[in-house]
Amino acid sequence: MLNIKNLKAQIEEIKILNGINLSVNAGEVHAIMGPNGSGKSTLASVIAGKEDYEVTDGEIEFESEDLLDLAVEERSNKGIFLSFQYPVEIPGISVSNFMKTCINERRKQQGLDPMPATDLLKLMREKMELLNINSGYLSRNMNEGFSGGEKKRNEIFQLAMLNPKLSILDETDSGLDIDALKIVANGVNKLRTENNATIVITHYQRLLDYIVPDFVHVLYNGKIVKSGGKELAYELEEKGYDWITKK
Amino acid sequence: MSLINNLEKYSKTLLLSTEEKNDLNSFFSSGFPNISDEEWKYTSLNKIVKNDFVVEDLPVFDEDNIIDKVSLGFKNKIVFLNGKLVSSPKIDGITISDFKSFKSKTNNSILSLNSSMARNGFSIDVENNTVLNSPIEILFLISSTRNTFLQYRNQINLGKNSNLKIIENIHSIHENLAFINHFTQVKCDENSIFEYNKTQNNKDNFSLIDTCNIYQEANTTSSVNTLIFGGSFIRNNLNFEQNGENAESNMNGVSVLNGSQFADNHTFVDHKKSNCRSNEVYKGIYLDKSKGVFNGKIMVRPESQKIDAFQSNNNLLLSDESTIDTKPQLEIYADDVKCSHGCTIGQLDKEALFYMKSRGLAEKEAKALLTYAFTNEAIDKISVPEFKDKCEKLIAEKLNVKLDFNH
Fold first, then answer.
1. Hey, what domains does chain A have and what are their CATH numbers?
2. pLDDT digit string, tens, across residues B154-211
3. Domain residue limits at B357
4. Best mutation site among A47, A70, A97 for testing chain B: the one with the most B CBs within 10 Å?
5. Which of A73, A87, A96 sits opposite B407 (nearest CB)?
6. What does the pLDDT look like over B86-138, one tens digit per residue?
7. Which of B321, B347, B373 is the last residue of a domain?
8. Are residues B230 and B355 in the same domain?
9. What is the ipTM of this complex?
10. Count of structural domains within chain B
11. Residues A117-152 as b or e (16 or more Cβ within 10 Å = b)
């Protein structure tokens, strides 16, 4: 599904990604771990298409198509979803209004009529239930005044609504207490199928107890320095990143 | 000929009272305001008044379905065609009549011009205890094959415990210049509630000076929502005077301008009694070479304690060539007062745009939605759903997107 080859990227002349190679197939969960500043969030942003980063070398293919030529929204509409580490507050636009606009703009591009309001509401309620979100939530402004946990839940709610092929969860566990973590992880797990894939970016092994990865990669200095199965995460938890980075 | 000459000539055709003569002389001695006047520092009338205008003298026109096209469809409609009142509704407890001469409490050259020679307008008297649930829609439609100068002089009197909502639209249809000097005086007696919704949506041949003076007695709430979507020149003077305790004055404004359009909102709240409130939210969005001015004056008199006054003016400059001059002007002479104000000038938040695009919205739609979100704090205060819908449609139209901003 996703093929990254020798990806190099920089921001304002500062090299951050120094040759990433990664393959993700449908049905798989990949965890990307690494110390602060290793390039984890940059990798997520570059896949999503954030313009601040300049890709200087390498390629990203998504379903055999060159991704680097596509705009942010085109990547989204091809089925890539980024759950933000720091979701943006948008005062003045409610969750339901935002979701309605996103869904219907996508349908417009697919040549479909807008989704009838009652169907849309039904769909939203169904996904809210999945994430234990109460009903007052839809009329609140996007992320405005949300707690850390509510913001992350709102990310996964949008993920559920947009039903992407590839989900990238950037530090979804940060700012979550253990109960919220379980709810969010449970939501992600229920949305998994053999046709979609997930990349989980995290500092800690904790989240991986709930979203169990098939592969774990360690990112350091903009390169994947070690890959393995889920047991690699436990090893990192026990020995720290020094174990790998000092080699 | 320039407008001053046109006006001089026109004044000779009128029979003027002594007072009107005095007002006229005072106008001619000072002339139109110019940029050396502090209140008009950023706002020049020169380009308009140098033109040759026909003053007032226009036939009523008969345009196919024009009223239906412009109207929001409310049952209670007052319609003016080229200055002449052509229809007004009959409503229990409310007397609506054609222009009546009245003296205004304050004066300046623009108002002197208006008080001396305006002969068009409406008068609405709401009896005590009359509550009208559906708004009255007032349409001022202008259509002419010549440059036109028109004046309206209106008054609204709300009785005790009454409630009135107005939707006003001054609209020019044809391609010639139209310049309107519009004045409305509103008196709100005790315990009354008043909401005045204005749309100013015209082509680039349209210029407007709209002065609205609102006098509030005790326990009244008065709100004016001003939605500006176009016109080559718009100057709004919105003045509130609180003459009784526990009065509340609300002002909300949204301007969305493009091309070389210009809009100036001057507001003034005079807190003359204690325990009163004012809330002011103005949002400006400027594209292309458009220009905006905001001047918000709040006066708290020495004897007025426990005043709660809030003012904000937020502006988005969406092009390199657009400009905004904004000035909060607070004069506070009492000590037990809560007064806050803030103004911002900025661009759309890049992080928010990336966030929205990552959910599949194209650049143009994401920008439009974010811009709409920016205006929403003001739009949200409008209590008439039909008017709110119309404004949301006009914002989408102005931003050139087919988005339905409705909740």
1. 2-245 (3.40.50.300)
2. 999 999 999 999 999 999 988 889 999 999 999 999 999 999 999 999 889 999 999 9
3. 349-407
4. A97
5. A96
6. 999 999 999 999 999 999 887 899 999 999 999 999 999 999 999 999 999 99
7. B347
8. no
9. 0.96
10. 2
11. eeebeebbeebbebbebeeebbeebbbeebeebbbb
